[in-house]
Amino acid sequence: SQQGEEDPQALSIQEGENATMNCSYKTSINNLQWYRQNSGRGLVHLILIRSNEREKHSGRLRVTLDTSKKSSSLLITASRAADTASYFCATGVAGNKLTFGGGTRVLVKP
Amino acid sequence: SAVISQKPSRDICQRGTSLTIQCQVDSQVTMMFWYRQQPGQSLTLIATANQGSEATYESGFVIDKFPISRPNLTFSTLTVSNMSPEDSSIYLCSVDLPGGPYEQYFGPGTRLTVT
Prior knowledge:
The structure holds 2 protein chains of 2 kinds.
Chain A: E1 5-7, E2 10-14, E3 19-24, E4 31-37, E5 43-50, E6 55-58, E7 61-66, E8 71-76, E9 85-92, E10 98-100, E11 104-109
Parallel strand pairs in A: 2-11
Antiparallel strand pairs in A: 1-3, 3-8, 4-5, 4-9, 6-7, 7-8, 9-10, 9-11
Chain B: E1 4-7, E2 10-13, E3 19-25, E4 31-37, E5 43-50, E6 56-57, E7 68-72, E8 75-80, E9 89-96, E10 104-106, E11 110-114
């Protein structure tokens, strides 16, 4: 069963705007990760945030983690058409296993 | 990082047949993972494959249906047996590198259609 639930399921924005998506999970975690998938291809790792971290940045990406609310958010700033993809959160627990959320489909219109 | 290749990239198979998917990594890794992604859905972990031991299957997946081999530290296969149209999915393998920090690297996936 899926650990994470993502919100919204789909997001359509104009190029240059920011995109925010949220992930909620149910059980304790070691880390939370975000991945991008372009059109049915393999996943690309974007960022990992550990359970003792609250915020992390990587380029135009900003991730927050609130373990008290069991939630995380991914912000993509100044979006580009190339950011069009599906974005998945995944929670990491013991044994290095990942449990993926349902994903957010992002469309960036030029 | 790790570079992962999968073969075949896609296939169309008849129900009742079996397909073996290969996953090759460009470096030695301890753990390899196999996922299924049904159309329009998220990823579901099928099993974890460690070299030298039996694969560990997740709830809802059994060895008879999805036998896995892991003959060395750079290679694994997943077989989808006695296929039905419900097995139509993308199958992905992934690895994480020794020592962590446990992000996973994914292959490009195998798109399977069962008719």
